[in-house]
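Is this the right way to post C-alpha cells for a design question? Let me know if I should format differently. Anyway, here goes:
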C-alpha cells in the first residue's frame, strides 16, 4: 500500500531523513518510535506534502502511484490522511462547514456525488459518537477553545468522516489523559483497523500501543530505521530506553 525507498528529506539546509526504507501493506498498523530529532515528524510532513519539507532523493509509492508527484490536496483525495501533533485552530470556520467542504471536495476529485447536508450530518453524528465528542462541538469553530484532548478527538472525528485509505498519525497521544487516550485508541481501531486500510502511527510512548496494537514497531534514529520488531519492542523501549535497545 505504502512503499518508501531511500527517502532523503531536508528542512531548510539540514538533512533530516537519510535513506529511510519502509513498506506498509494493506491491513497493517506500523508504529514509528525514536528519540527527539530522529526525523519522525519530518517523515509525516514529507508524506503529507507540507511546504518546507523537501524530499531530495528516494521514492514513495501509494497504491502504486507516485505520491511525491502529487500536490497535498491530491494526496488527500487519493486517500492519505495526516494527523498533526498540534492540530491548528481555524477561527471563523465551523467544524461542520470545514468537514463537509473537505469531504465533498475529495468526493468530487474521485468523481463521486457530494453529500447533502442531511447525509453529511448523519455521517458526522456516527463518527462523533465513536470518539465520544458532543455534536455541539462540531458546530464550534475548528479547534478554537478546545483542550488538547478535545483537539485530538476532533481530529479523529475528521479522520472518520473523511474515511481515508491510509493514516499517518503524528503523536496522536500527545496531551491525552488516560480516558481520552483509551477513547482515541478505540476510535483509531474502529475507523482504520480494516483489511483495506493502513496506519503509520508515530509515538514517543508505548501507552497508546496498548489500545492500538501494531503489527510492527520500528525505531527511527538519525533519519533511518535502525531496528524493527513486533509490539514487544515498544514495551522493551519503555522499560530500557533507546540507547540500551539500539545497542543490542
Amino acid at each position: 500500500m505504502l512503499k518508501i525507498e531511500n527517502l532523503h528529506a531536508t528542512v531548510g539546509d539540514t538533512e533530516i531523513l537519510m535513506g529511510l526504507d519502509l513498506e506498509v501493506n494493506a491491513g497493517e498498523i506500523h508504529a514509528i518510535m525514536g528519540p527527539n530529532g530522529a526525523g519522525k515528524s519530518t517523515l509525516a510532513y514529507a508524506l503529507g506534502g507540507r511546504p518546507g519539507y523537501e524530499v531530495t532523493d528516494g521514492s514513495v509509492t501509494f497504491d502504486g502511484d507516485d505520491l511525491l508527484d502529487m500536490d497535498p490536496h491530491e494526496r488527500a483525495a487519493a486517500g492519505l490522511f495526516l494527523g498533526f501533533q498540534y492540530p491548528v485552530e481555524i477561527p471563523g470556520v465551523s467544524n461542520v462547514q470545514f468537514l463537509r467542504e473537505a469531504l465533498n471536495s475529495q468526493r468530487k476529485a474521485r468523481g463521486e456525488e457530494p453529500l447533502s447536508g442531511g447525509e453529511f450530518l448523519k455521517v458526522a453524528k456516527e463518527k462523533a459518537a465513536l470518539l465520544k465528542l458532543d455534536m455541539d462541538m462540531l458546530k464550534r469553530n475548528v479547534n478554537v477553545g478546545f483542550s488538547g484532548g478535545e483537539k485530538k478527538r476532533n481530529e479523529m472525528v475528521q479522520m472518520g468522516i473523511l474515511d481515508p485509505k491510509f493514516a499517518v498519525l503524528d503523536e496522536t497521544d500527545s496531551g491525552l489523559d488516560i480516558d481520552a487516550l483509551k477513547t482515541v485508541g478505540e476510535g483509531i481501531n474502529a475507523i482504520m483497523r480494516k483489511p483495506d486500510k493502513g496506519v503509520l502511527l508515530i509515538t514517543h510512548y508505548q501507552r497508546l500501543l496498548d489500545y492500538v496494537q501494531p503489527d510492527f514497531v520500528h525505531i527511527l534514529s538519525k533519519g533511518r530505521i535502525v531496528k524493527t520488531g513486533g509490539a514487544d519492542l515498544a514495551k522493551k523501549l519503555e522499560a530500557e530506553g533507546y540507547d540500551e535497545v539500539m545497542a543490542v
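Format looks fine. Someone answered above. Worth noting: The longest strand covers residues 14-24. The two ends are 31 Å apart (CA to CA).
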